Structure formats: C-alpha cells, structure tokens
Amino acid sequence: xxxxxxxxxxxxxxxxxxxxxxxxxxxxxxxxxxxxxxxxxxxxxxxxxxxxxxxxxxxxxxxxxxxxxxxxxxxxxxxxxxxxxxxxxxxxxxxxxxxxxxxxxxxxxxxxxxxxxxxxxxxxxxxxxxxxxxxxxxxxxxxxxxxxxxxxxxxxxxxxxxxxxxxxxxxxxxxxxxxxxxxxxxxxxxxxxxxxxxxxxxxxxxxxxxxxxxxxxxxxxxxxxxxxxxxxxxxxxxxxxxxxxxxxxxxxxxxxxxxxxxxxxxxxxxxxxxxxxxxxxxxxxxxxxxxxxxxxxxxxxxxxxxxxxxxxxxxxxxxxxxxxxxxx
Amino acid sequence: xxxxxxxxxxxxxxxxxxxxxxxxxxxxxxxxxxxxxxxxxxxxxxxxxxxxxxxxxxxxxxxxxxxxxxxxxxxxxxxxxxxxxxxxxxxxxxxxxxxxxxxxxxxxxxxxxxxxxxxxxxxxxxxxxxxxxxxxxxxxxxxxxxxxxxxxxxxxxxxxxxxxxxxxxxxxxxxxxxxxxxxxxxxxxxxxxxxxxxxxxxxxxxxxxxxxxxxxxxxxxxxxxxxxxxxxxxxxxxxxxxxxxxxxxxxxxxxxxxxxxxxxxxxxxxxxxxxxxxxxx
Lengths: 328, 281
What we know:
The complex is a heterodimer.
Chain A: H1 3-6, H2 24-80, H3 83-86, E1 90-91, E2 96-97, H4 100-131, H5 136-150, H6 153-175, H7 184-208, H8 212-220, H9 225-254, H10 257-262, H11 280-287, H12 294-327
Helix pairs in contact in A: 2-12, 4-7, 4-9, 5-7, 6-7, 7-9, 8-9, 9-12, 11-12
Chain B: H1 6-26, H2 28-43, H3 48-52, H4 66-96, H5 101-115, H6 118-133, H7 137-162, H8 165-173, H9 178-189, H10 191-206, H11 210-213, H12 233-241, H13 246-276
Helix pairs in contact in B: 2-13, 4-7, 4-10, 4-12, 5-7, 6-7, 7-10, 8-9, 10-13, 12-13
C-alpha cells in the first residue's frame, strides 16, 4: 500500500520539479502535472482496496451461504435433533421428518454410478494419457468426453425418461424384478454417464505427469506395456486418480435435475436398487416450493446443509490431493 | 516368483490394450445416442411459430417457447453483468497476492464455491432475494452468477499467473500506476484465457435448472421485467418433460434441441478463441 515510494517519492510540495522556465504559464502546467500524478496515486490506492474487498467478498459469500443454511435449519435442528439423520419415516403431514431414506438413496445412487463409471473414465484416462496422447482419433475422443460434461443435466434427464427408462424396464422384466423403469438403477446409469468426464480428464493429466525415466526403466527391464501401466503408472498416479474419483463423487452427490426426473421420487426407505428412491437434492427440488410448515421447510434446508457440508469436504480433500500431487 | 511365458505376457498386453480402447470409446456411444435422439426429436418441432409464440394450453397446437428463449437470454445477461466484473477482479486479486493470508482464504472459498451443488445455491438465493422481494428473474440471475464466479476467477487467476513478471516490471519501470498496468498490460495479454473462462461459465449456467426452480420460477407469458417471475429454457424443459401431455413434450424436445445447440456452439466458440488467441510467450 506504500504508494508514495512506488511512485518515485513524489511529495506534496511544488518544488521537486525544477522549473527552468518560470513564466506563470509554465508553472500552472507543472502544477497540473503534479496534481495529475496525485490523482493517479489516489486511484491506485482505491483500486488496490477494491481488489481486496472483492477478495474478501468471496469469503463473505461462502460464509453467508453457510450461515444462511445453518440459521434457516435451526428450527428443525432444535425440534428434531440428531434423530433427524437416522429417522426412517418422512411424513410431513404427520410432522415426522427422518432423512435416512434420502441419505441412503443419495449414497446408493452415487456409489452405484461411481462403480459403473470408473472403469470407463479410467480407460479414457489411460488411452489419452498413455497409449495415444496425439492424433485425430484421440482428439475426437477428448472433445467428445468434454462434450459429455457440457450437455445440460435436464437434457440427460429428459433423454433418460424417454429412452433409458423403457430399456431399464425391459431389462428388469427379464431378470424378474418389478418392471418399474424409473428408480435408483436408472438414475445411477444416467449419473454414471454424466460423471465420466471429471475423473477422466483429471486422470489423463495425472498419467501424463509420470516421469518418462520411470517408464523407460521398466521397458528397459523388459516389461510389456501392460506391465508398465500396472506396476509403474497406476501406482505412481494412485492418489491423483483417487482425487479424480472423489471429484466425480462430489458431482454425483449434488446432481439434481437428471436424478429428480428418473428416480421415481418416493419418501420410503429404498429396498433394492431397482426400486423407487429419492436423493437429498431431488427431494429438495420436489418439495421445497410446496413446503408449508416452518419445520418442514427447515427440515429440507437441513438436508441442503448436509449436502453442502459433504460436498465441501469431498471437494477440499480432492483438491488437497491434487495440489500435493502436482507440487511434488 | 513364477516366470510366465513371453507369449502369455504379450497376449495379455494386447488383450488389455483392446479392453482399454473398447471401454474408452464406449463412453462416446451414449453421447452419440443422446445427441442424435435430441436432434431427431427436436428438429421436426422447430419452426417459425415455435420460435415466436408463447406456449398454448393443452389441446391447442401452435404453441412456442419465445418466453423461455427471451427469459434465458435476459437471465444470462443479468448474471453475466454481475459475475464477470467481480470474477475478473477477484482473479486479478488472487494472482497479484499469492502469499497473503486473505488471498489464501479467498482462494479456498472459491474452491468451495466451485463444489457447492446448484440446488443449495438455489435455496440460499431463495432466502436472500425471493423471501424479501418475491420470485423474480433477477434472483435467478444472482444464483447463476454465484455459480459462474468460481469458473471465471480460477481461469483468470491461472491465466495471469502464467504471464512473465518481466511484462509487469517493464510497465512499472515506465512509471505506470498499478491500475493502468493491470488494465493496459496484464488483462489485454491474458484476454484469451479470461474470455474462455467467461464463455465456459456461461455455457455451464445456460443448462442449470435447479437454482431457477425457486428463484426465476417460470412464467407462461412473455415477460421482460426482471423483477417478475420469468421462464427459462431448462425450466421449460423440466416442467414439460415431466408433464403427461404429448403437445408439451413436443415443446420440450424442441427446447432441448435449441438449448443443446446453444451450449455446444458456446463450447466450440470457446475452443476457437483459445486456439486463435493462444498466449504465446
């Protein structure tokens, strides 16, 4: 903030300018010049302060979000306590609020999606990072995977409703469970597609960071490519790949629209992966605008608070791992 | 350790390679299915009337989605007006102050913001703006602006960090004040990175529905007042896709195609910008 030093020690006196031509005209000109540099110094100070305020604004924003969620969910925290988290019944009419069905629904659908998508995103990462880093075909694949992330989630939901749900229904009737179509399984499938890009693009950049000496040493010992991947690349990038999976999980947990459209929306405990369910995000989307009682609203916000805290923790752990990995 | 035959190892090597290729390209299949299906369903629904009419009640044909189209454009413009200046300034702040404690926390908060689920932002915007002022397009814009911020901040910061210090030092040596160094030297040099961040953030929020559910709310009529409820493309897709009527589903397919084309164009445009104005130093 020490502006006077940075601007060559201009002080508030008219003297430092050596006035050779001392006509009144020249003196006013010199004075004007000095005034202009003071103005610039003032602008500079103001600009620096503005930047700092904007930096502060980011912190205020996040604290504000947290504070709003906490304050607005206080009624439900006070009324229901910790029981809320494992209560199995969600019945707003009777004023019974238990979040367990939604916590379980979120966990099942997200982890199922993760299990389905990890082999694919790992394959993309290995293909682009190790086998073919350059060329038109890898370029095509890379752009296509980025495109998966670009398609809006409501479009995924609509497509899933129109195309995926009937397919799942046929599949379910083949294996002999109730052919509902909609449900946790269908939403996991569409989630799996949506989260491929996050783990894939991170994994690719991690795999490209593996030092070539390590790989060459392994080749020099007579290893095949598969052996190099298995015993050099994968162990070396282990933590980075894990971070990618974590970020994917964060996405899956918070994903709202596509899930809301295909999961079936029931407030009962999910019995199997082929049954109807509900996630934290989808129940908020469905019931928030029609919640009429203060405790009902606040119970929904508490769900939002849990979702916020979980995703924040997951994302921060993922970011920490990436930072440590790329700084080594 | 048992030594396996060379043939077995080579076979395994090729087997794994084939597996990787199959799995990698399997990812593209659902994408192609989705794109082609939306194109097929949507292209027949789009005509002039679709673009200039408001939705009609069930049973009448000839409805359009002009209200959603205009609403999306307005909401995005307002969100951009809020998020772009703040985002770029915050990015400049973070790249200029790498070590200070405030910058550390600020950076952490931007990271946190990036991971916040959109529905949570919707709830918060509801309490900040809808509770006191009622459902309005501007509250939706604020929610979307909060989602745009982290993308713009991070891309600005990353771009400016890569610029050589000599550029800035040269400008300072000429006696330029700090704000002029930033706006006349640093920002123009890094404009491609900043711009691509802005475009990416717009592409991302264009398809966001969840924050708009409780804020902009939706409106079956054409409306240009930003303090009134407003329809938007993703919201119209959501409501009509889950409705039981075929006419409304048709509207949703058309809207999906428009939204998809829009988002894809933005992404391609971003790619072109980064390729054309690549900062070469």
